[in-house]
Amino acid sequence: MSFTEPLFLLYLAICVVVNRLCPKGLRPAFLLVASYVFYCTWSPAAAGLLAVLTLLTFGAGLVAEHARVQENTSIAWLAPAAAILLTGYLMAFKVALLTPSHGIAGLVMPLGISYYSFKLISYVLDVHWVKMPAEKGLVNFAAYVAFFPQIVAGPIQRPANFFEQLPPQPESVVNPLLRIAWGFVKKLLIADNLAPAVNAIYGHVTSLHGAPLWAGFYLFPLQLYADFSGLTDIAIGSGQLLGITGPENFNRPFTASSISDFWRRWHMSLTTWLGDYVFVPMRMASRRAGQWGLSFSIAVNMIAIGLWHGLTGSYLFFGLINAGYLIVDTLTNKRRTTFFRKNPQWDKAGSWFGWLLTFHLILIAEVFFRSQHVSDAVWLLGHLWSGLSGSLAVLQSLLVGNEMRSLVIGLVGYLMLELGERYRPDQWLRRIYAVAPRWVRWSYYSAGVTFGIFGLALLFVHTAGKRAAFLYEIF
Amino acid sequence: MTDTQQRLQGIFRDIFDDDSIVLRDDMTAADVHNWDSLNHIDLIVAVEREFKIKFTTADVTSLKNVGQLLALVDKKRTPKP
Prior knowledge:
The complex is a heterodimer. Chain A is mainly alpha-helical. Chain A has 20 helices and no strands. Chain A has three domains: 6-169, no CATH class; 172-246 and 389-475, no CATH class; 262-381, no CATH class. The two termini of chain A are 16 Å apart. Chain B is an all-alpha fold. Chain B has one domain (3-77): ACP-like (Non-ribosomal Peptide Synthetase Peptidyl Carrier Protein, Chain A, Orthogonal Bundle), CATH 1.10.1200. Helix content of chain B is 57%, strand content 0%. Chain B has helices at 3-15, 37-51, 57-62, 66-77.
């Protein structure tokens, strides 16, 4: 069951109603059952594997806490060993994906493996580092790991933050519904309309020059952002309807004015996770090594971000390029701050230049992210300026039939997305709504509900049979 | 303001290059410009040097605000009985 199927919306609606009708104490158990039913629609075998890992990690958490309380150093290694084994489990499936069978014992990449493995690892390490007590309720713990709105593609919620929201007490339905609707607009209206052009270009990269390559260069990051942030909106909104608010993943990433700023705004639940469990331990271990230690820790962290997506050359390059960017950014940060403080007249120009440079540096790295092979990415970047004359006609020939119309819809939609996130018209409406007389509120409500239902229904009918999978569903 | 607070404030001002920083117990990374995981360990190293103490990774990852950092510094400086 994919988030873009109408069946998912029906399933979610049933779960929301039953969850609200359930006595509070039974809600975690209900969420657990609902999550496993959802997971079994993908693969019952993978659900079995998830259950076994959940049990083992739950036990490891209890033993780790017992070892700490009893000051029993002979079993203190258990939690770090569990974290290493879980990393090995994730890596094994990523390696298996590269083999002819694409899997292990007939099982190809269990759904959401990259997300739930990180949840399990953070749990054992948090207990080991005394950031939280071990969870004593197996049902609560299993519901955290398998929570279905987050299992497909995150956001990666930290265990303590999930447990403190139990038993779930869902409040408003309006805001989560608006968020889900906005997520579908981003996915179905924007990302899926940009996808045909991006696929057509990246599918023939090495036979193209000039204009089509420029189009691919600029369009893919927009598609990726609309797709992944749309998926996150649906996940967060669905979680809120069930009484669990997950962490945010994006904060207008393409407005970043430096590379470090970008990585504070992009896929935040993954970057903060790696920051806490990879970067900080590495940096602590190498803290006496000065700037070399800092650069090494950044490099390991960014390569881990790249390889988390898959063990391929292009993801490795994506990580390496970002590591290079971030090391230069961090090592020059103090000098840049001092320069702009001494020369305030350059401040505005510096901000604009910083934004433009950051945007294009990220676009270069994302060419590697999208390309099947490193050689395709090198071709795209190396042939942007070659064969420009006549290349516009080639671009037009690639976008035959409906693809040009899709591209225009996608681009207009993307402009709407950026303006919407900049000016937040939903917040104006909410302010007006708060002080408006009752008849205005009711008219606003009924118009909103009618427009929302018909709009989404139209979007679903229009896109039936051609809805693409989310780009981040495969990790 | 205690001696520890005063010295810690000096470190914050130096690391984050901002002489207007005034420490509060409930202050978090979100309240200080440029305080992120990239330079958090620079701050930790400076605190270790200033107070001649040692932090562990577990110490560093479990800190939630300036108040907790202050308490941890005081705890580490107190000689064990």
